[in-house]
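Work Package 4 report. The design task specified in the project plan requires that, given a folded chain encoded as structure tokens, an amino acid be chosen for each position. We show below one input record used in the internal validation round.
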């Protein structure tokens, strides 16, 4: 059994100073009581003059391969719960109204959420990052635009633990899962929206900076864990459960070349180079000790559950990306290897179709770089394993508030402690539902790494 499978199986089983407090109270608390501004039809217009723009808005700039203008891209936006303007899902291609011709954005955000029955819940990309920067301005977490990916399923007749089926449910997730840069080699915090709604009233509406394994450490598919001395932000909590970012490493490439040289069948080694698995360990709960003290459970190992449970919710969700543009190579600057470079290794350059296509273009005198749309290495094929979702809420409230990382959850907001993000966890006493998975290939005209 490979190291990746062992990790996945085990996983499946398994603030600031006074001035900051004043600023938070002045600028954050009022928004908690305000109604969210209604967004215009997405893609129809630019934000109105005077609208407050989030840090995430306007980040994208066309590369030499992209033909859509920036202003057209920036018309895809929504208001967040804080009434700021955020980017949101858009198609990978568009029609430029100034020319009437199809143009390309060069990246994709996954499955079109407009067909999801939960689309009205909103997808303000970067909303949680923005709240983290407000509550802890010395330790923000910046994520690029192209890494936001959406997946969903409608009308799932969920499975039950003892067999049979349960209610009819909808599920949608949005994860920032960039696979082109060294960011995930060290950084374990990535923005996650997690939405569930069932016809029996079971419901989760969650936004947070999700923790995938330890900060400053990445799990190699073929080699050992790689521990690095830096990560951003330096305040990132470390989760030492079975969640992880499992990324192909140089050892996979070395093993592949060695097998080919020895004349062995190298198919299994070849495809070890092709997948990233991010195991989520989605766990959030609140317990009360006998003395009244509240204890937050967010996946940390050794958490003592022998107290009164107010609520908890868990999900076995994990995320797989096929054919990313990167791999971990400790011999390269920033540990960043480019998957397309394997096509230049004589022993494996014509082993499989992806490199064959690249090398045929090169033979014809063309240059194919890692960020060229003709490169197959761009991470456009993904599988989200929704798996089991559990909700247990013994309280009489379904409205909760958390800090951006979800490590502190309370029934009332407290801007002075960064507890400002509204969450919904239905008053469902005990539910455990199986949602299966969904795969999609979101490659399209003009899409290329970074994606």
């Amino acid at each position: 059994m490979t190291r990746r499978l062992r990790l996945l199986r085990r996983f499946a089983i398994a603030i600031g100073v006074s001035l900051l407090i004043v600023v938070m109270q002045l600028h954050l608390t009022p928004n908690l009581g305000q109604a969210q501004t209604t967004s215009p039809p997405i893609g129809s217009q630019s934000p109105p003059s005077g609208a407050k723009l989030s840090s995430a808005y306007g980040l994208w700039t066309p590369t030499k391969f992209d033909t859509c203008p920036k202003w057209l891209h920036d018309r895809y936006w929504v208001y967040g719960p804080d009434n700021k303007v955020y980017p949101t899902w858009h198609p990978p291609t568009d029609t430029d109204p100034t020319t009437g011709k199809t143009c390309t954005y060069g990246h994709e955000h996954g499955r079109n959420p407009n067909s999801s029955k939960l689309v009205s819940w909103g997808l303000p990309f970067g909303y949680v990052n923005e709240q983290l920067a407000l509550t802890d301005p010395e330790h923000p977490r910046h994520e690029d635009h192209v890494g936001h990916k959406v997946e969903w399923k409608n009308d799932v007749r969920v499975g039950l633990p003892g067999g049979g089926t349960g209610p009819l449910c909808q599920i949608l997730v949005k994860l920032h899962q960039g696979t082109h840069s060294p960011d995930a080699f060290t950084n374990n915090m990535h923005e996650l929206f997690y939405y569930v709604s069932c016809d029996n009233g079971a419901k989760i509406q969650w936004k947070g900076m999700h923790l995938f394994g330890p900060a400053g450490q990445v799990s190699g598919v073929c080699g050992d864990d790689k521990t690095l001395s830096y990560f951003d932000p330096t305040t990132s909590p470390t989760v030492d459960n079975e969640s992880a970012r499992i990324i192909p490493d140089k050892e996979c490439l070395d093993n592949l070349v060695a097998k080919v040289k020895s004349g062995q069948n190298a198919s299994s080694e070849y495809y070890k180079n092709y997948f990233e698995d991010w195991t989520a360990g989605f766990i959030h709960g609140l317990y009360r000790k006998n003395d009244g003290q509240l204890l937050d459970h967010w996946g940390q190992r050794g958490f003592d559950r022998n107290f009164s449970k107010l609520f908890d919710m868990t999900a076995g969700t994990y995320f797989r990306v096929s054919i990313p543009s990167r791999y971990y190579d400790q011999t390269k600057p920033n540990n960043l290897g480019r998957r397309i470079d394997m096509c230049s290794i004589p022993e494996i350059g014509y082993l499989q179709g992806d490199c064959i296509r690249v090398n045929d273009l090169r033979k014809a005198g063309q240059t194919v770089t890692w960020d060229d749309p003709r490169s197959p290495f761009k991470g456009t094929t993904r599988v989200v394993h929704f798996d089991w979702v559990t909700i247990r809420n013994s309280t009489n409230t379904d409205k909760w508030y958390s800090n951006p990382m979800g490590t502190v959850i309370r029934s009332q907001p407290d801007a002075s402690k960064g507890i400002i993000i509204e969450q919904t966890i239905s008053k469902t006493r005990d539910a455990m539902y199986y949602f299966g998975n969904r795969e999609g290939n979101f490659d399209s005209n003009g899409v290329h790494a970074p994606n």
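The chain has one domain: 3-27+147-441. Validation will be extended to a larger panel in the next phase.
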